[in-house]
Specification:
The structure holds 2 protein chains of 2 kinds. Chain A is α+β, with helices and mostly antiparallel strands. Helix content of chain A is 21%, strand content 21%. Chain A has 8 helices and 11 strands. Chain B is an all-alpha fold. Chain B has one domain: Formate dehydrogenase/DMSO reductase fold. Chain B is built from 10 helices and 1 strand, in the order H-H-H-H-H-H-H-E-H-H-H. Chain B has helices at 5-29, 37-56, 76-99, 105-127, 138-163, 168-196, 204-208, 227-231, 238-266, 269-292; one strand at residues 215-219. In chain B, helix 1 crosses helix 5 (138-163), helix 3 (76-99) runs antiparallel to helix 4 and helix 4 (105-127) packs across helix 5 (138-163). The longest helix of chain B is centred in the middle third of the chain and has 29 residues, at 168-196. The chains are: A alpha+beta, B mainly alpha. Chains A and B meet through strand 3, strand 4, strand 5, helix 3 and helix 4 of A and helix 3, helix 7, strand 1 and helix 8 of B.
């Protein structure tokens, strides 16, 4: 079955940790697009109060590696990885959680979801969030409602987060197509998957930080 | 994991009701006559229905619960959703047949088998999640079965002491209930020891792919909580956990054993009557810990607000 699926399209994001500046533009653009669509809002609870909370498909986290003074700050965007063996799909009792044959996107059918949260338990990455007001499980859709929308100009038929990123840290493409920019980036720049020990085969990959030693007066030498 | 009261009450009530009904079926299969059997069956069936009601409280959309039978080929939750109504139907049928004095022998074996399948489904819901290492072990299956049987037997003794105390069966059941509780205690202890010594498969390094040994989260990407910080953390102090542990060992195992021994020795029914309510409080603590002590790997991503 896996060999069969390898030949099919697998859309994914390749996230370049080398250039992500942690601006959260992907977070806000994701929220804006996905709360405005026909699939229903991503609700917020108490948004202007002391303890606000809400549904997001994408977060940018920040990590510090190494010991002072040799530390690096790494901004780390995190959303559903659209695993090729998604553990969230087989556990769903209603079939609301599914992986699309045609492009490998993992989606939730909100009309079938009973809000049992079992898929969220079954995801080691915490990629799924139950929407508190709609009481259905939600997650990154890779902006599936943009990708095939013929009314959008072709350059806009990609995820909102990819369009918003000011440093082009998010490469979107078919990782089963060896000629795609995403596949090339994984191949040539050491793209890796998160938590490989759980054998979920995430489609999203990350490009590692590459430390560039500081070059003083570099501008003058040129 | 965050222990949800709906799931805790569902699984504990279901286990006790299954234990009660399977004990009754086993007694009948061995040809032992049971006093007030229709009342006992009615109580067992009622408990099953109450537990089913509790399970609905866990759902965001209970009105769509019927859809959950769809994916039985892959989902243990779906399998449970199918087997539970079958078990309730068998228990209800037995209750009706017994109350109306009809032949019931044919229903006993199917009831026991379906109950075993139901225990398997309930436990596999947790045991099949391979990266929740505290759950992904045969101990999960053994514990659901052992605690179900033990609490069912203790419940049967408590009920018999209430409604048919002069029956010789009450005293005869004591060694079985004591034995079952001891077996459950041994396996629960073994799984506690195992959980304490688990080496997590995932680390912050595997979660982020950043290989430096010194790695700390500076921000989880939000200042307020989210589903991720609510659903997967128990949010209680270490002291609270210690209290719950004492309640589990004390009320689920030690006290019921003492009460059963006392009632066996003194023939005073008050000890038997008290045994189940006390054990049930301990069972709630046991199930709370079962969830609270399961460490979900996603928690690695949610350690520091900012």
């Amino acid at each position: 079955m896996n060999q069969h699926s390898e030949s099919r399209k697998q859309l994914a994001l390749v996230i370049d940790l080398n250039v992500c500046v942690g601006c959260h533009a992907c977070v806000t653009s994701c929220k804006q697009w996905n709360t405005s669509g026909a699939a229903g809002p991503l609700s917020d609870q108490n948004p202007y109060g002391a303890d606000p909370t809400g549904t997001f498909f994408n977060r940018v986290q920040t990590y510090e590696a190494g010991a002072f003074p040799d530390t690096q700050t790494i901004h780390f965007p995190k959303s559903c990885l659209h695993c090729e063996d998604p553990p969230c799909v087989p556990v769903c009792p209603t079939g609301a959680s599914y992986k699309r044959e045609e492009d490998g996107i993992v989606l939730v059918d909100y009309d079938k979801c009973i809000g049992c949260k079992y898929c969220a338990w079954a995801c080691p990455y915490g990629a799924r969030e139950l929407d508190e007001s709609r009481q259905v499980m939600t997650k990154c859709t890779l902006c599936v409602d943009r990708l095939y929308d013929q009314s959008l100009p072709e350059k806009d038929r990609q995820p909102a987060c990819v369009m918003a990123c000011p440093t082009q840290a998010r490469i979107f493409g078919d990782i089963h197509d060896s000629h795609s920019e995403a596949s090339k980036a994984i191949r040539e720049r050491g793209g890796y998957a998160l938590m490989p020990e759980h054998e979920t085969r995430p489609a999203n990959h990350y490009l590692p930080r590459q430390v560039t030693p500081p070059r003083y007066n570099a501008g003058q030498e040129d | 994991m965050h222990p949800a009261f709906s799931v805790i009450s569902f699984t504990t009530l279901l286990g006790a009701a299954q234990g009660l009904l399977v004990s009754l079926a086993a007694l009948q299969l061995f040809g032992i006559s049971i006093p007030a059997l229709p009342i006992l069956l009615g109580i067992g069936t009622a408990l099953l229905i109450v537990s089913l009601g509790a399970s609905f409280l866990h759902l965001g959309h209970p009105e769509r619960a019927w859809r959950a039978a769809a994916m039985w080929r892959t989902s243990w939750l779906s399998r449970e959703v199918i087997v539970l109504p079958v078990f309730i139907s068998l228990a209800s049928a037995w209750t009706v047949l017994e109350s109306t004095g009809q032949e019931t022998r044919w229903i006993l074996m199917p009831l026991v088998l379906v109950s075993l399948v139901l225990w398997l489904c309930t436990a596999m819901i947790y045991a099949c999640l391979r990266f929740i290492q505290e759950w992904a072990h045969p101990f999960t299956l053994i514990n659901y079965l052992a605690l179900g049987v033990a609490s069912g037997l203790v419940l049967l003794i408590s009920l018999l002491a209430l409604i048919a105390n002069d029956s010789p069966l009450t005293a005869q059941l004591h060694p079985w209930a004591i034995g079952a509780t001891l077996i459950a205690l041994i396996f629960r202890h073994m799984s506690s020891v195992r959980n304490r010594n688990i080496k997590p498969k995932s680390s912050l390094q595997t979660a982020t792919g950043i290989r430096q040994p010194q790695l700390t989260q500076r921000s989880m990407g939000m200042s307020a909580g989210a589903f991720n910080t609510r659903e997967f953390f128990h949010g209680k102090t270490a002291l609270f956990l210690r209290y719950v542990k004492s309640i589990m060992w004390g009320l689920c195992f030690a006290m019921p054993l003492v009460l059963l021994l006392l009632s066996f020795a003194t023939n005073n029914s008050i000890f038997s009557v008290l045994a189940f309510p006390i054990q049930y409080i301990g069972l709630l603590a046991e199930r709370w810990l079962f969830f609270a002590q399961a460490r979900h790997p996603q928690n690695l991503y949610y350690q520091t607000v900012s």
